[in-house]
Amino acid sequence: MDTADSPRTTPPPAPAAATGPAAPPMPAASLRLLRTAGFVSNFDRFCITPMLLLIGTQLGVPLTTVMLAASGYFLAYGLMQPVWGLLSDRLGRVRVMRLSLAGAAVAAFCSVLAPGATVLIVARVAAGAFFAASIAASITYVGDTVPAAVRQRPLSELMTAFALGTAVATVIAGALAHYVSWRLVFALPGVIAAYLIVALRRLPEPPRAAPGALLAPFKVVLRSRWQWYVMAVAMLEGAVLLGFLTYLAPALEAQGASATLAGAVSALYGVGSMAAAQQVKRLVGRWTPVRLIVVGGVQMAVAFGLATASQSVPALVGCALLLGGGWSFMHSTIQSWATALSPAARATGVAMFGVALYVGSALASALAAGPAEHHAYREMFLTAAVLTVPLTVAAAVGRARYRS
């Protein structure tokens, strides 16, 4: 990248393991800890969705009230991304993960003990604010410690863990809440977060540039033209994929499928993502990033094409699996690109990338709510298929022109 995009910084030494093609790009134990942190963050973020109706019934409040716990969580999760990124650049990646997970554990256990809706809403908002640090910090850690040429391999491992957290939350949370208790579901991420507070002490803190003025990382990030470009791509990606993905389950339910079946089909997105991530790991270094992006875009276009043609169970099963594959091919490539843009303020840059992704997702979900209310799912998925084309072109052309 142009040196004008970031001030001089001392890059961390490349791990010796990354120099050999057969060796892992980072220690397996370190990667397991990062994967666990990402898994628990995504599990906690998505576990409440299948439990909303049951929680409302047991607490004696309407669904709209319980929805505040979910929407407040997502809002806090998105807004805290730049805050944790800034703190990570100043305090260190591992320290911020441990501090945030301590707060997340407390918030999770408060959710377990919540006597009513008000306490539960406050606890879930706090959980969203604290769990927001884990995924961005994990990605940044990989960016700090793994050479760019092989960085996408461990990032694909992280994507697998993130997808697993989403899938497990979607499928398991509802079953545990129905047959045991919804409070147990909130206890699980609390226990894992408490374990990680201790376990992450074994993770070495990567070198980073000495912190300057408080807002210096934002200045570094926001003066990079490529950072703005990648953030724009991330916003469009969040809208096209994550925003419209939300409506797979409602589209099935509108055809008469049960909520359980609709949730299980939606969870296949995680299965597709995990399977594709294993392929991406093997293809990194053999395929160019542009080729990976294009293959991901084609999968997404075909997926939304299937959903446009039919909202039957077989069609949406194929759609969910292909969307997961498209996410692993395209998003892990763009994510790897984002870690290279502002090395002097990497955590802040990755956090701003995340903000753009979540903003795009939220905007698309909100704009699609009207058509979804009228069951206009065919038109909605056709729109997503069409938008996949400029997304793929913008991501592929930008990545081809970018010079690190």
Automatic annotation (TrEMBL):
<feature type="transmembrane region" description="Helical">
    <location>
        <begin position="228"/>
        <end position="250"/>
    </location>
</feature>
<dbReference type="Pfam" id="PF07690">
    <property type="entry name" value="MFS_1"/>
</dbReference>
<dbReference type="InterPro" id="IPR036259">
    <property type="entry name" value="MFS_trans_sf"/>
</dbReference>
<feature type="transmembrane region" description="Helical">
    <location>
        <begin position="313"/>
        <end position="330"/>
    </location>
</feature>
<protein>
    <submittedName>
        <fullName>Inner membrane transport protein YnfM</fullName>
    </submittedName>
</protein>
<keyword id="KW-0472">Membrane</keyword>
<feature type="transmembrane region" description="Helical">
    <location>
        <begin position="182"/>
        <end position="200"/>
    </location>
</feature>
<feature type="domain" description="Major facilitator superfamily (MFS) profile">
    <location>
        <begin position="30"/>
        <end position="403"/>
    </location>
</feature>
<feature type="transmembrane region" description="Helical">
    <location>
        <begin position="121"/>
        <end position="143"/>
    </location>
</feature>
<keyword id="KW-1003">Cell membrane</keyword>
<dbReference type="GO" id="GO:0022857">
    <property type="term" value="F:transmembrane transporter activity"/>
</dbReference>
<keyword id="KW-1133">Transmembrane helix</keyword>
<feature type="transmembrane region" description="Helical">
    <location>
        <begin position="256"/>
        <end position="277"/>
    </location>
</feature>
<dbReference type="InterPro" id="IPR050189">
    <property type="entry name" value="MFS_Efflux_Transporters"/>
</dbReference>
<keyword id="KW-0812">Transmembrane</keyword>
<dbReference type="InterPro" id="IPR020846">
    <property type="entry name" value="MFS_dom"/>
</dbReference>
<dbReference type="GO" id="GO:0005886">
    <property type="term" value="C:plasma membrane"/>
</dbReference>
<feature type="transmembrane region" description="Helical">
    <location>
        <begin position="155"/>
        <end position="176"/>
    </location>
</feature>
<feature type="region of interest" description="Disordered">
    <location>
        <begin position="1"/>
        <end position="23"/>
    </location>
</feature>
<feature type="transmembrane region" description="Helical">
    <location>
        <begin position="289"/>
        <end position="307"/>
    </location>
</feature>
<dbReference type="InterPro" id="IPR011701">
    <property type="entry name" value="MFS"/>
</dbReference>
<feature type="transmembrane region" description="Helical">
    <location>
        <begin position="380"/>
        <end position="398"/>
    </location>
</feature>
<feature type="transmembrane region" description="Helical">
    <location>
        <begin position="96"/>
        <end position="115"/>
    </location>
</feature>
<feature type="transmembrane region" description="Helical">
    <location>
        <begin position="350"/>
        <end position="368"/>
    </location>
</feature>
